[in-house]
Amino acid sequence: MQLRGHQRTERIGLALAGGGPEGAVYEIGALRALDDALDGVDFNAVPVTVGVSAGAFVGACLANGITTAQLVRSVVHDEPGEHPFAPELFLLPAVREYARRGLSIPRLLLEAVSSVARREEPIGNLLAQVAGRLGRALPVGLFDNDPLRAYLETVFAKPGRTNDFRELAHPLIIVAADLDAGTTRRFGEPGSDHVPIALAVQASTALPGLYPPVEIEGRYYVDGVLLKTLHASVALDQGADLVLCVNPIVPVDTEGAVERGVMRRGHLLDRGMPTVLAQTFRTMIHSRLDTGLAAYRERYEGADVVLFEPRRDDYTMFFRNIFSFAARREVCEHAYASTLQSLKERRAELTPILARHGVTLRGEVLDRPHYDLWESVGLGHRGGDAVLPTTVATRDLRDALDELEELIGGV
Question: Which of 8, 237, 329, 395 has the least C-beta neighbours within 10 A?
Fold first, then answer.
């Protein structure tokens, strides 16, 4: 089934990392920038697209012929004929998981008491036995990822699209981790290409602790980022000579945050456990990415891997409530502008690398005085809506207005 009549982009791969809802929005904005600025790359006709976690979601859409412009419009605008994309899909409580674990509590308590009654354990260990066994009743995921799969099933049911890897015009590989084996499974490759695309995306986005593992053919799968950050090697193994990588998972450096008015004090500890855990996760993941990229240079001699990601002091990409419409729009437009600015600053470095693979930078795009995402995707200046200038004060005001809107809507 040929989804679109795009001219084939020769020997170029695309690797998209994770990052949750914020990462997906960042990737969409960054990919639109690359689409505008690179001549010789058709992101709906890349010979191999590799996605993990949020990148699996975005990559599956691209492989299904959904353009970068359509993705941008779906984030900030109701796209005609499309099912609206809402990051809130990622944060629906896993009610069934809560109920299933809750129903196991009486049995676990009985087992703890019985072990003491049978003198298998000293009576003084009863509390420890209860605590240990009740740990099994803790939900393995806070949020439900079934709505994400259902959303993609609806999107891929549109004419000219498919939920079947084997019917795509160009290969798509979605990476997940087998929970019980600690190994990688590449959905979309022979032997794993019969699994529906939407189900594979659900498995690849199942970050332990946030989302329950996804059962596929009697095995349980979780977020593929646990094994590698980008899995760019998958595209290189498929014969790609140039792999374009987008990675939103970067640890924040708060050194200048106070001076720029983003934080009262430059300590992430003040923001509580979720922020501390997020910074820890980002630091570990990014450190592993650096190691992986160095290994690629030695293992795949002659191939080029070009990485695009936020700077560590890019505070627009951090501390944002991505479930706020204003913040979602801001992150997307910032990813677009900052990626174009990065291309402009790296022009001397990237020009010869890209030229080796028949790709050129569009100077007329990079040299524009302003980078306007909304004009790029046909929504008019600033998305067709009045938008306040981007400053710390106006960002705070937008968030306050969003919260007020939610309160009024709930009355």
Answer: 8
